[in-house]
Amino acid sequence: MWWGERFHSSDSDVLIGLAGIGGALLLVLIRRFDSSACMHQSESGCRKQALWCDTDAHWKTATLLTLLYGWLVLNEIPPTVYGAVWLALLFCLPGPWRERGRLNFPIAGMLLMSLPSVLTVELILGYPMRWIGTVLASGLLWIMQFDVVREGVMLETAGQLVWVDVPCSGIRMLWSHVWLALFLAGFFRLGQLLTVLLCVVMLAVVVAENALRIVGLVLLTFMPPLSLAHSAVGVSCFISGSIVLVWLAWRFGRNPFLKGSNQEHVSSLTPASQWRYGFMIASIAVAIAIGWVVTREQRPALPSQQVQWPDTFEGERLIQVPLTEQEARFMRRLPGRIGKFSAGHRSIILREVNKVSRFVHSASYCLQAEGWTIEPRPLFEDANGVRWQRYEAVRRDKRWKVRECCVDRVTGKTWPDIASWYWAALLGHTQGPWQIITVAE
After folding, report:
1. pTM given for the model
2. Alpha helix locations (H) across 144-273?
3. Any idea of the CA torsion for 206, 208, 212, 215, to the nearest 10 degrees?
4. Alpha carbon separation from 262 to 37, 47, 53, 350 (Å, rounded)
5. How confident is the model over 71-110, as pLDDT tens digits?
């Protein structure tokens, strides 16, 4: 249902979800092909594997997962989280995600990756990954004898300011390498332990890649501008990391002692256990019903203080205009108030927020969901020294120049993007209330 609602949009979550499902199906086909070839071997070869599931333990697990799922949905936890619980329920049953009595990590991991997770992952992990990459890059530049000053996720050297923005967080690179690591683990038939080990190495590779990419972007500021230089640096780092992962999985796969155990398990699908399978199927049905009812329910707006909107913005008079249907629907989950204004040829959206929430995100995600293509632009600093995140939204013959920033209404401190503000507020560095300003022209 989630994919269907966004099928005609440019939302990258749709393609990522389909890639996860496609990867899982590909691994299943490869495993079936191997099993078919194995059946034609001699009696000394391997035998067809029987579906196996420890129903005595799994029906109890299914009960706990159903209760946990209901609690997560009712408390408006991100769908990525309760979607993972729903899949865990499914993994209790026999299916292509189980092999030799154990959960097949590559296939199960691919299915987990198909969940709508990009927005949540970028909000939660995006800024920490940018920060770690910036710290490592500043250390590498210092070793290279550069005089570097780091401020958050910004690097300044020789009068050049480089801002590590959201597209440079490495989240897309991380997702691609997770997909590659899981596929390689499934292709080379690695066991559970080695699959986990390969993913741990993959995380280290992604962190190193991101740091090297940031170093490359800093060095590019001292060179004449080249049209494809930025992309070339990212692609080079990605290819290098991918080669390391392929080589490592190949080495693990060649050693028979490092592969998963060939121990077979007999099927426990007996008449005595059929009621337990029925219970697990019923648990999944209950989970579906809970998710359908709760997520489709119209919730009242969260209580917030009355907001006194400003009369002017950057010297121009603000004229309030009514919200569109989509904007009004979004406001129902915003922990605060939202106002839309026109100021000359510009359109301005002000969001007054009184608590940290994942429902506060960049307007670029809403634009992408409506079919706009987002093109990131360099950091913008206005006449007052306020730094803004900037991008262009393009759809057919329309082009909007958009900039955003977050402001603490009490102290006046600003952040150029939502992720920076989110972590500052989450760690208690700012108490709010806050105002999210989006300017489109």
Report:
1. 0.76
2. 171-187, 192-220, 229-254
3. 110
4. 16, 10, 16, 60
5. 777 776 767 777 888 888 888 777 888 877 778 899 999 9
Provide the strand spans (E) within 48-159: 98-99, 102-103, 148-151, 154-157
Within 10 Å of residue 64's Cβ, how many Cβ atoms?
A: 13
pLDDT tens for each residue of 6-23:
555 555 667 777 888 888
Q: Which residues contact 188 (CB under 8 A, 6 or more apart)?
A: 249, 250, 252, 253, 259
- Chain centre to alpha carbon of residue 242: 20
- Give CA 222 to chain center in angstroms: 33
Distance in angstroms (rounded) separating the CA atoms of residues 327 and 341: 13
Residues ≥6 apart with Cβ < 8 Å to 419: 122, 123, 126, 127, 130, 166, 169
**How far is the C-alpha of 284 from the C-alpha of 86, rounded, in Å?**
7
Q: How many Å separate Cα 372 from the centre of its chain?
A: 19
